[in-house]
């Protein structure tokens, strides 16, 4: 015997079109034989719920109105009486969990496939985006609210009582089954109406006996229980219990959930059809008419008691109470209360699809429940009102308002309304999705997820993510974010497969975006969960994406790296990883260094632009090679002239920068190149190793195997490097490959081992289409991965001993250039080209073995080192030096050659040297070059300047002031020697000024000035030249007069002419007068040793006088005269000597004045003629003029009232013509009327230059005309006794 309750059920849209599975057998009934299981509730359900077997389109339905309509689809749910009860929440959740767990196990095979891409996901329809099991989960989640007290959808409508024909006294069994003591508690407690439709069924198994027994029982039932409420159903009429025929008879019904269990059922197709007809009859002729009658009766009662203005006022007055207690469920309502009856009316009308009738009753109930503060029942009718509005499509705004009101009210109740809020949210989201409002639906799913446990929340969040993807336009970021939230909830609920699945689906969202933190979170968790599932290779693949996370904290980086190495070691083998991101190889820093006919002394020399070397080697390389575009034009390998060339036995180097992005040290071992060497030259035209090395996306995905590039020790050798990179450290490393045979060498990539467990490799991404601009970087910088290997060639290596990287200005050194031949053949024809002869000058063979600086002293110099002025002037600009022709460097031999170094000027200087040498044997290349490059920092030392003024006491004599400023912060210097370049000038101290030797040492930051005079030794008036005491060198410190350096010999003379040439380019003003060379020495003491620089030479060129007059003049005559003025006035004869220093004729006019013109007079306090007569100061110090004075002092204007003490006589004006470089004397006479000391300077010279024929005068250098006042000339006249 079984008691089955029939309940019409609404679906998730509110329509009565879905069914739920049946429940377990009743404990108080007799169990039907196992061959009767076709009539158990789960087996009847498909026949009651599928439209094909419950077609009611011909059954008219009429509710409260008189207008009938037809139902298009109607389903009922059948449950056992024992299951009509409120299920505990924890038990219900445990019943839902297998739905997710079953899908969790099925998700594992899909996790082995590649993650979905954005294009594929966007093209999927809605049905494929959300897995099917999620719909089942939603139904099971809503089923947990079955048989609620505040709604009548799950209240029984009919009761089907089934008794077997084999039972004794079957009629009494029917009475016992519906005994009130056996009814569900909800019916006995007054919550559900026990007066429901009853239907009696006799089940007869034809395998147990003839059908006549069942017919007799049916007749007895009808006479006792009623004619129309009793039915007979015969089953198991088949003669075979198994076999193919039995299985085939079940095929049409397998889609409905029916199966031939174990082949033990004897149900035939006729039996199945009979069951279908019974259910159709039961629904159409009993259940639906019963519901129609119930609706009409209830509607009449409601209309009588509640509808109408009077009833509404009465109801409001009766319910208007302030003392109604606040309770989650409000007051208790029995099934007989008017509120419960109205709710039954509304729910029955809703199930029979009279939505307008249902809505009117729900609205009526909403006011009552609100006044009674029955919030759960109020939320329930608001929920149903929203569904009615949605189905009727009357007011979208009202529908959403009702659902929002119901949802928030359920949440306000507390835990008792939480699951109802979830169901309301699910219906609300389905409403929005049906209208295409996916964005709003996702917000509802998110709100619902906050109220559910982690497992339920995960499923709801996944549905929210799918809604964001279906929005227009798709909201990918929110889609990915909600998937991550869902995955985290899945993981908390111990559903790791689901967690991995949703995380994988979010990968494409963060793949191309710079959201590094969430990208690391996704990859790390996916990799970790794959590792837990035992899929280690995929786990390592995802963890590779996070091991180079430089932005993470130290703790996080350690966690990522430890998990990565844990899973790698768990595999038990080394793991090859293409483009391993630890360490990071900066491919933009790649530089290939190889040597063809161009060789380099060091790797730093390769960084110099090719245009610099080409300009330097323009005169060095033979012209026949320059005419051709490439030396290969004359070789058999002409077709490879555009290729890069290297030499067998010489290393090809590759520089690359490595960086550790982490904050923790990383050990990297076995760093080496991946290479191939083909011995056939035709391989150059083929692709490199058959791989696409142009660096595209396909290259990254294909991951070419590294096994095809193993080291071939017979053809080339590779260097291996082991380093440890500290946290955040960057290092530039150099990797070498040395080809041993001729052929084509191909640089494919780099390989390395990380922490002895992971082998990383990366291929070079060469751009074959990129062209290198001519003169920019040249072939050294071109990242061409193919090099033509030719046979071995002779090669020189070179270096300069003691070449400084830092020096002070003026530093002079003797260095040594060392060349060594490491090849098997001799080299010859060596030439050298220097870029800056101001700093470097090749020495001579005689300089080998000399002691510096003693070799520069005058008594140490050999005659061969004397350089004539003409030779220097002709060759000082030459930068090419040829070694002697007889010099050859044999195999394994070395050559040392002196090089003079001079730090000419402060600043950063780059020095370039290129050596050319020819092969001593026949080879493809006839010559090679050795390129050397040095960077030099020159610091300031002594700043030397000179100021020159003409002497007023002697012709061809100058007064010179030398200013010396020590600009070093810690060094001191001794001024050793001052020299005038050339033999024309003699330098000496002033006659009455011995202070030139008073300062021996110039300390740091000290400034000193020196005064001395220079004379023209070639002048006729130079007495020192006649006596042989004229010298151009002057010692500046005591005891150094015997240790003077000869500046007329090499290398001082060479460097001086270089300085004269360079300083002449920037010299301004008139032609220079002379050049100075100041030699100083560094000072050391006990606390501070002597610096590396021992001798400094400072060259100051193109010095000129401050006065630029083309003529010199000087007054000659007696200085002291005795005369008796009592007898007559005194006559003094004078001579004015005028010298033409120009190369042109000059017309000179001499004019004397008894009284100087007013406009040219200046008052001097010490002028002897400021008064008419008397004694005046005649100190010789007045004759030494300071450099800053631009003119001589002049005579003060005499008073017009006094009489002049002397007058000029003989002539007042004279005019002469001076030939170039000649002198003339003009006789003058003056009459003195009283004794005293007189200054005869009141005269003036005026000149005009007359250029010679065919010669041009530079107006910027000399004045074409001008004038000047006379120089002071003092004469003392004494009264004779």
UniProtKB/TrEMBL annotation:
Gene3D superfamilies: Tetratricopeptide repeat domain (1.25.40.10). Residues 610-769 form the TPPC8 first Ig-like domain. Residues 1-25 are annotated as: Disordered. It comes from the Eukaryota. Residues 1117-1244 form the TPPC8 C-terminal Ig-like domain. GO terms for cellular component: TRAPPIII protein complex. InterPro entries: Ig_TPPC8_1st (IPR058541), Ig_TPPC8_C (IPR057651), TPR-like_helical_dom_sf (IPR011990), TRAPP_III_complex_Trs85 (IPR024420). Pfam families: Ig_TPPC8_1st, Ig_TPPC8_C, TRAPPC-Trs85. PANTHER family: TRAFFICKING PROTEIN PARTICLE COMPLEX SUBUNIT 8, TRANSPORT PROTEIN TRAPP. This is Trafficking protein particle complex subunit 8. It comes from Miscanthus lutarioriparius.
């Amino acid at each position: 015997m079984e008691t089955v309750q029939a309940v019409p059920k609404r679906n998730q849209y509110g329509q009565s079109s879905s069914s739920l599975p049946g429940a377990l057998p009743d404990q108080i009934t007799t169990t039907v034989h196992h061959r009767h299981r076709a009539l158990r509730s789960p087996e009847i359900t498909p026949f009651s719920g599928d439209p094909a077997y419950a077609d009611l389109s011909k059954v008219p339905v009429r509710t409260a109105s008189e207008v009938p309509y037809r139902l298009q689809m109607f389903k009922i749910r059948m449950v056992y009486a024992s299951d009509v009860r409120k299920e505990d929440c924890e038990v219900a959740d445990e019943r839902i969990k297998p739905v997710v767990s079953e899908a969790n196990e099925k998700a594992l095979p899909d996790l082995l496939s590649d993650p979905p891409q954005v294009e594929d996901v966007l093209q999927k329809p809605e049905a494929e985006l959300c897995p099917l099991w999620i719909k089942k989960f939603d139904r099971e989640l809503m089923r947990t609210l079955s048989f609620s007290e505040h709604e009548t959808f799950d209240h029984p409508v009919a009761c089907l009582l089934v008794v077997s024909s084999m039972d004794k006294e079957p009629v009494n069994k029917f009475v016992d089954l519906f005994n009130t003591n056996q009814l569900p508690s909800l019916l006995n407690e007054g919550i559900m109406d026990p007066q429901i439709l009853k239907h009696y069924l006799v089940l007869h198994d034809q395998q147990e006996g003839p059908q006549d027994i069942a017919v007799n029982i049916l007749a007895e039932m009808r006479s006792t229980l009623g004619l129309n409420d009793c039915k007979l159903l015969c089953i198991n009429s088949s003669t075979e219990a198994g076999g193919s025929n039995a299985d085939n008879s079940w095929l049409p019904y397998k889609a409905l959930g029916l199966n031939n269990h174990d082949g033990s059922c004897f149900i035939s197709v006729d039996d199945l059809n009979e069951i279908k007809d019974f259910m159709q009859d039961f629904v159409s002729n009993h259940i639906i008419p019963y519901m129609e009658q119930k609706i009409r009766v209830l509607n009449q009662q409601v209309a009588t008691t509640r509808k109408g203005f009077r009833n509404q006022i009465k109801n409001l007055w009766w319910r208007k109470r302030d003392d109604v207690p606040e309770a989650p469920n409000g007051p208790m309502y029995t099934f007989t209360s008017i509120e419960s009856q109205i709710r039954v009316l509304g729910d029955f009308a809703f199930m029979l699809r009279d939505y307008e009738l249902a809505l009117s009753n729900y609205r009526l109930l909403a006011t009552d429940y609100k006044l009674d503060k029955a919030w759960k029942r109020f939320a329930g009718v608001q929920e149903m009102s929203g569904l009615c509005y949605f189905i009727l499509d009357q007011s979208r705004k009202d529908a959403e308002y009702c659902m929002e009101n119901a949802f928030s009210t359920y949440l306000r109740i507390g835990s008792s309304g939480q699951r109802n809020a979830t169901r309301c949210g699910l219906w609300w989201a389905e409403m929005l999705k049906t209208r295409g409002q996916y964005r709003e639906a996702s917000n509802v799913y998110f709100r619902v997820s906050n109220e559910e446990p982690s497992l339920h929340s995960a499923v709801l969040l996944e549905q929210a993510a799918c809604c964001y993807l279906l929005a227009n336009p798709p909201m990918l970021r929110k889609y990915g974010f909600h998937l991550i939230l869902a995955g985290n909830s899945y993981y908390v609920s111990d559903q790791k497969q689901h967690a991995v699945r949703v995380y994988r689906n979010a990968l494409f969202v963060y793949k191309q975006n710079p959201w590094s933190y969430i990208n690391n979170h996704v990859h790390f968790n996916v990799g970790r969960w794959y590792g837990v599932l035992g899929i280690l290779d995929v786990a390592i693949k995802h963890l590779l994406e996070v091991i180079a996370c430089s932005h993470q904290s130290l703790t996080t980086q350690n966690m990522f790296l430890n998990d990565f190495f844990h899973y790698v070691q768990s595999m038990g083998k080394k793991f090859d990883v293409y483009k391993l991101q630890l360490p990071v190889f900066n491919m933009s820093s790649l530089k290939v260094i190889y040597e063809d006919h161009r060789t380099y002394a060091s790797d730093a020399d390769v960084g110099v632009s090719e245009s610099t070397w080409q300009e330097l080697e323009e005169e060095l390389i033979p012209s026949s090679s320059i005419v051709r575009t490439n030396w290969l034009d004359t070789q058999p390998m002409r077709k490879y002239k555009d290729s890069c060339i290297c030499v067998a036995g010489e290393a090809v180097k590759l520089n690359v920068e490595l960086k550790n992005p982490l904050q923790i040290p990383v050990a990297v071992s076995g760093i080496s190149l991946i290479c191939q060497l083909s011995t056939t030259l035709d391989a150059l035209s083929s692709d490199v190793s058959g791989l696409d090395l142009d660096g595209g996306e396909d290259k990254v995905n294909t991951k070419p195997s590294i096994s095809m590039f193993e080291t071939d020790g017979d053809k080339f050798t590779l260097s291996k490097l082991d380093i440890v990179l500290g946290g955040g450290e960057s290092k530039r490393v150099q990797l070498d490959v040395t080809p041993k045979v001729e052929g084509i060498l191909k640089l494919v990539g780099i390989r390395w081992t990380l922490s002895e467990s992971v082998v990383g490799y990366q291929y070079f991404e060469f751009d074959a289409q990129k062209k290198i601009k001519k003169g920019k970087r040249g072939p050294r910088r071109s990242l061409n991965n193919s090099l033509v290997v030719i046979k071995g060639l002779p090669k020189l290596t070179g270096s300069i001993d003691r070449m400084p990287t830092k020096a002070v200005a003026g530093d002079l050194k003797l260095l040594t250039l060392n060349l060594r031949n490491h090849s098997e053949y001799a080299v010859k024809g060596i030439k050298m080209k220097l870029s800056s002869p101001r700093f470097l000058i090749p020495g001579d063979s005689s300089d080998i073995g000399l002691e510096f600086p003693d070799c520069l002293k005058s008594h140490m110099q050999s005659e061969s080192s004397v350089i004539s002025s003409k030779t220097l002037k002709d060759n000082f600009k030459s930068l090419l030096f040829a070694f002697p022709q007889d010099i050859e460097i044999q195999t394994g031999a070395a050559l040392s050659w002196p090089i003079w170094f001079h730090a000419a000027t402060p600043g950063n200087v780059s020095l370039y040297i290129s050596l050319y040498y020819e092969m001593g044997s026949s080879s493809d290349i006839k010559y090679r070059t050795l390129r050397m490059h040095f960077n030099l920092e020159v610091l300031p030392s002594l700043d030397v300047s000179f100021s020159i003024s003409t002497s007023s006491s002697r012709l061809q004599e100058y007064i010179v002031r030398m200013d010396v400023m020590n600009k070093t912060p810690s060094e001191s210097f001794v001024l050793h020697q001052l020299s005038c370049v050339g033999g024309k000038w003699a330098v000496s101290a002033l006659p009455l000024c011995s202070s030139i030797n008073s300062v021996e040492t110039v300390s740091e930051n000290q400034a000193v000035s020196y005064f001395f005079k220079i004379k023209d030794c070639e002048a006729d008036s130079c007495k020192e030249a006649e006596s042989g005491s004229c010298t151009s060198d002057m010692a500046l410190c005591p005891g150094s007069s015997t240790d003077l350096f000869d500046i007329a010999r090499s290398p001082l003379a060479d460097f001086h002419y270089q300085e004269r040439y360079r300083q002449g380019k920037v010299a301004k003003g008139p032609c220079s007068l002379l050049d100075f060379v100041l030699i100083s020495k560094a000072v050391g003491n006990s606390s501070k040793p002597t610096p590396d620089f021992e001798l400094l030479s400072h060259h100051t060129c193109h010095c000129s006088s401050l006065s630029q007059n083309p003529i010199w003049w000087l007054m000659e005559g007696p200085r002291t005269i005795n005369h008796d003025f009592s007898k007559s006035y005194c006559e003094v004869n004078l001579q004015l000597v005028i010298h033409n220093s120009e190369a042109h004729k000059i017309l000179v006019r001499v004019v004397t004045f008894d009284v100087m013109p007013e406009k040219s007079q200046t008052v001097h306090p010490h002028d002897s003629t400021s008064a008419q007569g008397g004694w005046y100061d005649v100190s010789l110090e007045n004759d030494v003029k300071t450099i800053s004075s631009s003119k001589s002092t002049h005579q003060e204007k005499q008073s017009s009232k006094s009489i002049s003490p002397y007058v000029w006589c003989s002539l007042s004006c004279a005019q002469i013509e001076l030939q170039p470089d000649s002198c003339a004397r003009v006789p003058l006479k003056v009459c003195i009327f009283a004794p005293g000391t007189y200054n005869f300077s009141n005269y003036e010279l005026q000149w005009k230059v007359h250029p010679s024929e065919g010669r041009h005068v530079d107006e910027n250098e000399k004045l074409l005309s001008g004038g000047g006042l006379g120089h002071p000339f003092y004469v003392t006249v004494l009264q004779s006794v």
